[in-house]
């Protein structure tokens, strides 16, 4: 049965799963990003957003860690991706109201 | 200045923006998915999830349309992507507890 090639949206969802797993699987609980794993993820995948500033990364972790267990589960990770995507969307497409 | 190639996570965020814009920009408000645009998006990009069943698509739209304005903005669209990603993550990685 020929496998239909995934759509752009399906590839994006696959990427989210693969990237989270790549970093969450490095140590400890494979379903959560530890502080160290999150820092490695941010400095590798989203360095342009944090300029590799540990203080910025730690603050982001605190805000994202909704259940304060010191780790980020997949939903908390998606909130980060969503937050960045909305910020980019607003910056690129939503013109600021004219004064 | 050589443009560093985007990371997998950055490409994914770019895709989310591009796909949303591709469908939201077809008619009416370019920053929102109308019911028709959402149906076209689902039947093109995520047909494997809905089997192109209009009733399924309409039910999803109602649940996603948090502010009930009959359209989906980018945040409501991201909630869909996040919901599907979490469902896939749980199905693939989170083994159901042994009875």
TrEMBL record, chains A, B:
Gene3D superfamilies found in the cross-reference section: EF-hand (1.10.238.10)
Keywords associated with the record: Calcium, Disulfide bond, Metal-binding, Repeat
CDD domains associated with the record: S-100A11
InterPro entries: EF-hand-dom_pair, EF_Hand_1_Ca_BS, EF_hand_dom, S100/CaBP7/8-like_CS, S100_Ca-bd_sub, S100A11
GO molecular function: calcium ion binding; calcium-dependent protein binding; protein homodimerization activity; S100 protein binding
Cellular component GO terms held in the UniProt record: cytoplasm; nucleus; ruffle
EF-hand domain residues: 52-87
GO biological process: positive regulation of smooth muscle cell migration; regulation of cell population proliferation
PROSITE patterns assigned to the protein according to its UniProt record, in alphabetical order: EF_HAND_1 (PS00018), EF_HAND_2 (PS50222), S100_CABP (PS00303)
Assembly information from the UniProt record: Homodimer; disulfide-linked.
Name assigned to this protein: Protein S100
Organism: Gallus gallus (Chicken)
Lineage of the species this protein comes from: Eukaryota, Metazoa, Chordata, Craniata, Vertebrata
């Amino acid at each position: 049965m020929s496998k239909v090639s995934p759509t752009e949206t399906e590839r994006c969802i696959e990427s989210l799963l693969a990237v989270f797993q790549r970093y969450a699987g490095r140590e400890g609980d494979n379903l959560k990003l530890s502080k160290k794993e999150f820092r490695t993820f941010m400095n590798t995948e989203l360095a342009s957003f944090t300029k590799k500033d540990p203080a910025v990364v730690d603050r982001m972790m605190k805000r994202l860690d909704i259940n304060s267990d010191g780790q980020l589960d997949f939903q908390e990770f998606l909130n980060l991706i969503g937050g960045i995507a909305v910020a980019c969307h607003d910056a690129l497409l939503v013109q600021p109201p004219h004064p």
